[in-house]
């Protein structure tokens, strides 16, 4: 069953319950609450997935509308079956314990939102003013996010503190407030459920954009790696060489404090540094290709595109026989030195991690003009951090 | 003597501007309900309209989208009485103020767009107030009025904007109109968002602005990042194509042409956007395995030896292995070998590999290769039809032939764009008349 079938199913379930309530007691408030329950359940399955933070469900926004429309008891009565329904249809957790764990976490987060709204609103002595409503709604919108962070901290999950990683949170919080105000207004002049429906549009836009972004980033990464694997499948390079060199280069670059953009270029260069190998004619005597010619051929191809041109500069710089002093602003030269060290290190190890100590020793004892000392120190620190130097000590 | 497009455009701009001025004059005489209390709302919405026009979101098609219709509809809700028509009209006028045009000193464009915005908003206001009559109305009435007003706004706007686009692109007016109306479908969600914005503006006043703008900007920023990564992905594939072309000069432009022919077939077979995207990548990358084939073999004029042939054929399994590493292409990867595609012809199954196979063979036949000069288009069509049921899917073959005939495009001998200089001239006909697929057959019978 596709995600959208499940989402529509949950919305329809809310609609059916609402219809039942309307038939039994025409004009009852439970009709709208049941529809909102369907929206909360469906919102559990539609999550914003920014790259820098854990997924953020749209139910965090719908629960604020629910809290604004109902008493605490009513809201909890609607929320519970909605969360159970969503848990049954989750795909990211296919076993009972993970499903129950998500259900429990989400129950606490959404309940916090409901309780937060009512306690903040009551602190204004139930006076319905623009300020009291906006403050109470904002508190309710922020509450599940804070509780989710606290649960994450308690469970030692990776936390997101950067502002950039919080953009999706901001989208959910502002949309939640808008949905609630559009639903009931401040003094009863709202649009009803048309309001939340309309203000779901920007969140859906954000969801779509994040979803496409994540999928395209994955495809891009896989394409780059597929291209990197071609020389390996052709038997020109040892299996996994490009991946290992890329991994090590990025680790060394990070240890040397390179920026995210420089690291991205370094990684692309490391993955594709043997691309030139597949473009050159095989030597007639059956011997090996000249390393500098391979690098230059690869660099020329990379430089023919705008976005990969910096990676081409790194590959070209790596091929330099002797060490060229890299000035502070010459990122390509510095990256080239890192790539050179990582590349030779992997060749010395021949893919066997136990040889890490010996390979490092060989690099350290090479003539000083060949490898950058700073890079070698960073390499040692990376290997040490990965506990790969045991054999040398 | 033909009148230049610039002169025609001046006349059209003069006409549209006169219409807008007449509307403005009419408003001046009938705006009895307008008071200075409305000015803050007008200022806020006017600024938002200019911001929306200038914060365009680039789309994959290379065109841009903006959310100015949202502000336009919001102005109809905020200035909800008939005597306040001046509000929506001023907001409509502001949707024409594009900083890019001003910087380029393209004042005629600005005047045209402002006038078109004024007239479109006047028309939208007319239909909106015809549906939403004064007095208490249900929200459903507002929704219907918004839907109709958006349609009228987009219709009038397209009617006017199609003139310059048609004149400068030299496409027929009807074609341009139909194209812009089709592209405008994406504006309707923004229109309904405008209904919400207008409504909540009446509740929260200017405080609503950041609440609406923030999620939209976040969505826009994520979408822009997606387009950036998409560009990086396209350039990675371009890198692959350059690598292949560096190996074999005869394949220059091959991947792009295969992608183009595949798109023709995909569109004839009415594939959805997701499958079309997958088809495009599969077509662009179908030769990735050739990276492992030595250049000398790819460029060898004449027949290959047994060992050489085996080495060349290995590229298919390497293509499958490499494409299989990309989740998006993994479902089609196992079917991209000529053997698998032939099997798929009999058993049905995924159509994408069949499309790529036909597009690849057609381009191979109509391009000059190291081992053979280009065949004529008619010969290539005959070869494709001969291979139906054995090598190619009938629906793909007929879709390609139909698409090319419909477009009046011609390829092959006498129509090649690349000029080839030969050290050893390839034969007129012979081995590889349909690319590697025929090489296999030739090899088997030799």
**Which percent range fits the helix content of chain A?**
55-70%
Largest sheet of chain A: 2 strands, antiparallel
Number of strands of chain A: 2
Q: Structural class of the helix and strand makeup of chain B? A: mainly alpha
Structural class of chain A: mainly alpha
Strand order, sheet with most strands of chain A: 1-2
| Overall body shape of chain A | elongated
List the secondary-structure elements of chain A in sequence, H or E: HHEEHHHHHHHHHHHHHH
Task: Please give the most extensive interface between any two protein chains, plus how many residues each contributes.
Answer: A-B, 68 and 63 residues
Poorly predicted runs of 5 or more residues of chain A: none
Order of helices and strands of chain B: HHEEHHHHHHHHHHHHHHHHEH
What does this structure look like?
With about 400 residues, chain A is mainly alpha-helical. Chain A is built from 16 helices and 2 strands. Chain A has a two-stranded antiparallel sheet with strand order 1-2. In chain A, β1 and β2 form a beta hairpin. The two termini of chain A are about 55 Å apart. Chain B is mainly alpha-helical and about 450 residues long. Helices cover about 65% and strands about 0% of the residues of chain B. Chain B starts with a helix and ends with a helix. The relative contact order of chain B is 0.07. The chains are: A mainly alpha (about 400), B mainly alpha (about 450). The interface between A and B is large, with 68 and 63 residues.
């Amino acid at each position: 069953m596709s995600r959208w079938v499940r989402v529509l199913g949950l919305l329809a379930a809310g609609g059916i319950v609402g219809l039942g309530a309307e038939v039994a007691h025409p004009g009852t408030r439970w009709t709208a609450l049941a529809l909102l329950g369907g929206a909360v359940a469906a919102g559990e399955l539609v999550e914003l997935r920014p790259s820098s933070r854990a997924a953020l469900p749209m139910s965090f926004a719908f629960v604020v509308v629910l809290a604004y429309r109902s008493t605490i008891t009513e809201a909890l009565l609607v929320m519970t079956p909605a969360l159970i329904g969503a848990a049954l249809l989750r795909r990211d957790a296919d076993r009972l314990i993970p499903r129950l764990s998500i259900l429990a976490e989400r129950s606490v987060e959404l309940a916090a939102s409901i309780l937060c709204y009512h306690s903040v609103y009551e602190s204004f002595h139930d006076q319905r003013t623009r300020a009291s409503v906006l403050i109470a709604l904002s508190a309710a919108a922020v509450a599940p996010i804070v509780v989710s962070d606290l649960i994450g901290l308690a469970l030692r999950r990776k936390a997101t503190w950067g502002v950039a990683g919080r953009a999706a949170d901001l989208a959910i919080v502002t949309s939640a407030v808008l949905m609630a105000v559009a639903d009931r207004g401040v003094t009863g002049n709202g649009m009803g459920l048309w309001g939340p429906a309309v203000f779901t549009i920007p969140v859906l836009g954000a969801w779509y954009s994040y979803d496409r972004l994540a999928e395209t980033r994955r495809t891009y990464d896989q394409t780059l790696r597929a291209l990197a694997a071609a020389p390996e499948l052709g038997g020109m390079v040892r299996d996994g060489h490009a991946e290992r060199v890329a991994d090590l280069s990025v680790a060394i670059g990070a240890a040397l404090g390179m920026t995210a953009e420089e690291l991205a270029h370094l990684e692309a260069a490391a993955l594709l540094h043997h691309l030139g190998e597949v473009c050159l004619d095989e030597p007639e005597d059956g011997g090996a290709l000249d390393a500098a010619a391979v690098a230059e051929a690869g660099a020329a191809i990379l430089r023919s595109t705008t976005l990969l041109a910096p990676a081409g500069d790194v590959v070209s710089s790596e091929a330099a026989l002797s060490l060229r002093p890299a000035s502070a602003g010459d990122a390509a030269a510095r990256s080239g030195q890192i790539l050179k060290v990582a590349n030779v290190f992997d060749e010395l190890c021949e893919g066997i991690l136990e040889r890490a100590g010996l390979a490092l020793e060989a690099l350290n004892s090479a003539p000083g003009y060949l490898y950058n000392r700073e890079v070698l120190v960073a390499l040692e620190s990376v290997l040490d951090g990965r506990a790969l130097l045991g054999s040398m000590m | 003597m033909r009148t230049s497009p610039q002169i025609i455009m001046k006349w059209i701009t003069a006409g549209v501007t006169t219409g807008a001025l007449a509307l403005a004059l009419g408003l001046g005489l009938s705006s009895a309900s307008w008071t200075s209390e409305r000015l803050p709302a007008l200022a806020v919405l006017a600024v938002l309209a200019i911001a929306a026009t200038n914060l365009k979101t680039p789309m994959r098609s290379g065109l841009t989208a903006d959310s100015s219709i949202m502000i336009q509809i919001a102005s109809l809700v905020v200035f909800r009485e008939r005597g306040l028509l001046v509000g929506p009209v001023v907001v409509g006028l502001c949707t024409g103020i594009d900083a890019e045009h001003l910087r380029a000193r393209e004042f005629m464009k600005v005047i045209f767009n402002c006038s078109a915005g004024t007239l479109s908003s006047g028309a939208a206001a007319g239909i909106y107030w015809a549906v939403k009559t004064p007095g208490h109305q249900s929200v459903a009435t507002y929704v219907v009025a918004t839907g109709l007003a958006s349609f009228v706004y987009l219709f009038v706007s397209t009617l006017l904007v199609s003139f310059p686009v048609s004149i400068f692109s030299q496409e027929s007016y009807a074609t341009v109109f139909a194209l812009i109306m089709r592209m405008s479908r994406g504006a309707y969600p923004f229109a309904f968002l405008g209904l919400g914005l207008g409504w909540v503006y009446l509740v929260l006043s200017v405080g609503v602005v950041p609440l609406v703008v923030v999620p939209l900007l976040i969505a826009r920023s994520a979408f822009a990042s997606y387009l950036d990564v998409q560009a990086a992905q396209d350039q990675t594939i371009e890198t692959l194509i350059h690598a292949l072309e560096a190996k074999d000069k005869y394949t220059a432009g091959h991947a792009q042409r295969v992608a183009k022919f595949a798109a023709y077939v995909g569109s004839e077979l009415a594939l959805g956007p997701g499958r079309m995207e997958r088809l495009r990548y599969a077509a662009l990358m179908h030769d990735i395995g050739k990276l492992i084939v030595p250049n000398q073999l790819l460029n060898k004029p004449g027949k290959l030896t047994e060992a050489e042939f085996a080495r060349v054929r290995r590229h298919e399994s390497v293509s499958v292995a490499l494409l299989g590493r990309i989740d998006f292409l993994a479902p089609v990867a196992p079917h991209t070998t000529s053997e698998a595609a032939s099997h798929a012809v009999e058993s049905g199954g995924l159509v994408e590999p069949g499309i790529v196979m036909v597009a690849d063979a057609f381009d191979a036949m109509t391009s000059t290769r190291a081992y053979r000069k280009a065949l004529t288009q008619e010969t290539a069509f005959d070869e494709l039809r001969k291979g139906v049921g054995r090598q190619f899917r009938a629906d793909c073959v007929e879709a390609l032939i139909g698409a090319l005939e419909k477009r009046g495009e011609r390829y092959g001998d006498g129509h090649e764009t690349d000029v080839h200089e030969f050290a050893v001239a390839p034969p007129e006909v012979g081995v590889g008349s349909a690319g590697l697929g025929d090489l296999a057959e030739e090899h088997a019978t030799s």
